[in-house]
Design brief:
InterPro entries: DUF2207 (IPR018702), YciQ-like_C (IPR048389). Residues 265-544 form the Predicted membrane protein YciQ-like C-terminal domain. This is DUF2207 domain-containing protein. The chain crosses the membrane at residues 229-246, 375-397, 403-425, 437-458, 464-486. By secondary structure, this protein is α+β, with helices and mostly antiparallel strands. The chain has 3 domains: 43-224, Immunoglobulin-like (Sandwich), CATH 2.60.40; 227-253 and 371-482, no CATH class; 265-369 and 488-579. Helix content is 41%, strand content 22%. The strands form 3 sheets. Strands 1, 2, 4, 7, 8, 9, 10, 11 and 16 form a 9-stranded mixed beta sheet that branches. Helix 6 packs antiparallel against helix 7 (351-365) and helix 9 runs parallel beside helix 11 (464-482).
Length: 613
């Protein structure tokens, strides 16, 4: 390369590097935006830091801190004392004083820390102020008996600490090790044994601190009695008991009289019966309509070409106008493209008709339940809200800072228990007593498991167990609220007829079934769709085992004479019904997603750090 060209290339590279440097200098890294924007505005230096700790046998520590600070930041108003709240540590009786009149401290919670803003309204640039703090630290018991690590000087200070001194007074003789320096220092700077520990450090750099590891003899340390936990447990028990009694009083069900029917009551179709039995329209209820329509001679089912994807063929039987609206909607949309339709062609197209059918059925039958159940459920919900707010207010009374995150596990516990309990209550007449019992129990257990998320919630004033206890109470209230339903008179009468019909399906003797087959050869196929929505398909099929039952008239297929049995058809029915059910309710797929993450730092019990503000 010629010298002139080489010089030009170097100049170009230099310009690019200069542009990058200018851009980098004017653009803060995303992870240090706060620190960069505050650089110079809140600069301060701790000129003297004195700590006095009195350790008590119940793992509470009385602390006094005196911090003398000089301010050099052009917008300095004071400092922020950050208290670490991880590991189950709690604080109480926090007070602060300043040697200047312009002083109005307040609390905030930030990134897992309790932040105490020691500041006033005016700018304090060039001033020197002394802050005196008093507080009580409560430390949870650790697995190793007698072990108590304390961050006497926290590792979160964002400035140098000068003239640091500490005096730790113990309730009994203990072995100790002192670690000074950066977080994670593994070699002690001092060790010994005694009932008082004192040390002095000329200077600690930003991010450096001092940890004292204490090892007491077995039996010296106990656990402080948690009156807040006792209060919330008692309140939770009383609230749950009151709501349970209220539910028992308000939600007395009317007497259910079973009327045994040999046919579906009120000429009811499987879809409507499916909703009446459990207050929901399942996909299998929709699939059962195909076999009902076939038994009523509105269509035939051709399995010749593909038994897994049957062809539905419309017959010449007219659809009467007096037929319920949801049935006319079903038949009209089933054959909207012609008299012959493959089930697979309805995928992702038929679900709109299903939604219309659901609306029509609900409009025809109206509400099933009395308002008394709603009142009970609302009371339980309000009780859960008040229980959660009670815990938050108790925390606020100890340290005046608003907390939101502890509400999450309480709400999750209530909602999970409510949903499962309501589902089991609706399905009580479709499933067995044992299944309902274990379902309700499972919902309660799920709610309690979600309540355990309270262990992850940090509160500077209350232990994790307080929020867990309240979460358990919310789970119980959700279970009670979910079970708070009262059948109205009209629904109670219809349900009695349906359960009488179900009783016919399940308890009729085989000899009587054989006799009825003489007058109704297709009795098995006519009742089978109803047995499906009532959850007694196996019981109905078992009654025909060994009986001579011909193939249904509405099915075309390669049935090899004697090889066809009700057991074979029952298996085919299940498979076909499941396949068609999935097809009828299938919707076009949607996708999406996103996420974020964060982090922080921690140390021993107590400690924390400080910032300018």
């Amino acid at each position: 390369m010629k010298p002139r060209k080489r010089t030009g290339a170097l100049a170009l590279v230099a310009l690019i590097l200069l542009a990058v440097c200018i851009w980098a200098g004017g653009t803060s890294p995303i992870f240090s935006r706060t620190a960069a924007s505050a650089a110079g505005a809140y600069d301060f230096t701790v000129e003297q830091y004195t700590v006095e700790m009195n350790v008590h046998t119940d793992r509470t520590v009385s602390v006094r801190e005196e911090i003398r600070v000089s301010f050099s930041g052009y917008d300095s108003h004071g400092i922020i004392r950050d208290f670490a709240t991880d590991g189950g540590v709690t604080y109480s009786d926090i007070t602060a004083e300043c040697d200047h009149a312009d002083f109005s401290p307040h609390f905030e919670t930030e990134d897992g820390f309790l932040s105490y803003y020691l500041r006033g309204d005016g700018v304090v640039t060039g001033q020197e102020r002394t802050y005196t703090l008093h507080y009580t630290l409560t430390v949870p018991a650790l697995a190793e008996e007698g072990y108590l690590p304390l961050d006497v000087i926290g590792y979160g200070w964002q400035t140098a600490l000068n003239n640091v001194s500490a005096l730790v007074t113990l309730p009994a003789q203990a072995d100790y090790q002192i670690y000074a320096g950066g977080y994670g220092t593994s070699f002690p700077s001092d060790s010994g044994s005694g009932s008082t520990i004192s040390f002095a450090v000329d200077r600690l750099l930003p991010g450096q601190g001092v940890t004292v590891d204490l090892s007491f003899e077995a039996g010296v340390l106990t656990t402080a009695f948690d009156f807040d936990l006792l209060i919330m447990i008692l309140v939770s028990v009383v609230v749950v008991a009151v709501c349970f009694v209220l539910k028992k009083v308000l939600c007395r069900q009317p007497q259910l009289v079973l009327t045994v029917n040999l046919t579906a009551p009120e000429e009811m179709d499987p879809l409507r019966m499916g909703r009446l039995i459990d207050n929901s329209i399942d996909s299998e209820d929709v699939g059962a309509l195909v076999f009902w329509a076939a038994a009523e001679e509105y269509l035939t089912i051709d399995l010749t070409e593909d038994a897994d994807d049957p062809t539905l063929i419309r017959t010449q039987k007219p659809v009467p106008q007096e037929l319920p609206a949801h049935l006319r909607t079903f038949l009209a949309n089933l054959f909207v493209s012609g008299d012959v339709v493959r089930v697979s062609s309805l995928k992702e197209n038929f679900y709109t008709a299903v939604e219309v059918m659901k609306t029509q059925v609900k409009a025809a039958d109206g509400s099933f339940y009395d308002k008394k159940g709603t009142i009970s459920a609302v009371v339980c919900t309000l009780a859960a809200v008040l229980l959660g707010l009670g815990a938050l207010l108790l925390s606020y009374a100890r340290i005046p800072v608003f907390l939101i995150t502890p509400i999450l596990p309480m709400a999750a516990a209530f909602v999970a228990s409510f949903v499962v309990s309501r589902l089991m209550t609706y399905r009580r007449h479709k499933i067995g007593k044992s299944a309902r019992f274990f379902g309700m129990l499972g919902g309660l257990v799920l709610g309690c498991i979600l309540a355990l998320i309270g262990f992850l919630m940090t509160s500077p004033a209350l232990s994790h167990w307080v929020f867990v206890a309240v979460g358990f109470g919310c789970a119980c209230l959700g279970c009670i609220a979910g079970a708070s339903v009262v059948r109205n008179k009209k629904y109670n009468e219809k349900l009695g007829h349906i359960l009488g019909f179900k009783q016919f399906i399940t308890v009729t003797e085989k000899d009587r079934i054989a006799f009825m087959l003489k007058d109704d050869p297709e009795l098995f196929y006519r009742i089978l769709p109803y047995a499906q929505v009532l959850g007694v398909t196996d019981e109905w099929t078992e009654k025909f085992k060994g009986l001579d039952v011909p193939a249904p008239h509405y099915v075309r297929g390669n049935f090899a004479g004697d090889l066809f049995t009700v057991m074979v058809w029952s298996s085919m029915f299940r498979s076909l019904n499941a396949s068609m059910s999935r097809t009828f309710v299938s919707r076009p797929s949607r996708s999406g997603g996103g996420g974020r993450f964060g982090g922080g730092f921690g140390g021993g019990f107590g400690g924390g750090g400080g910032r300018g503000c």
